[in-house]
Amino acid sequence: MFTDTSYVPPTRLAYATRWRKTVDEIAEYSEDTPIYNILILIVHQFLDWHIYMSTMVRLAFKMI
Q: 45: helix, coil or strand?
């Protein structure tokens, strides 16, 4: 290969300026979509819950 090419996705700002919106407006539009809600639920179930439980277990051992 003479040249190495890679795909660089557009930034949020570049995407927002293409649609003549601000980054906050695009985030506000996407908050109510089902795919966004499902992703947030998955993150809460598989990441946040484990962090919460591990923190509570560590605090319980310190109290003993």
A: helix
**Can you tell me whether residue 52 is helix, strand or coil?**
helix
Q: Are 57 and 49 in contact (CB under 8 A)?
A: no
Q: Indicate the pLDDT class of residue 51, thresholds 50, 70 and 90.
A: confident
H helices within 1-64, ranges in order? Answer: 12-18, 23-30, 34-43, 49-63
**Amino acid letter, residue 35:** I
DSSP state, residue 47? I
- State pTM to two decimals: 0.43
Residue 12, C-beta contacts closer than 8 angstroms, at least 6 positions apart: 23, 26
Nearest-angstrom CA–CA distance, 8 and 3:
15
CA dihedral of 27, 33, 37, 42, whole degrees rounded to 10 = -100
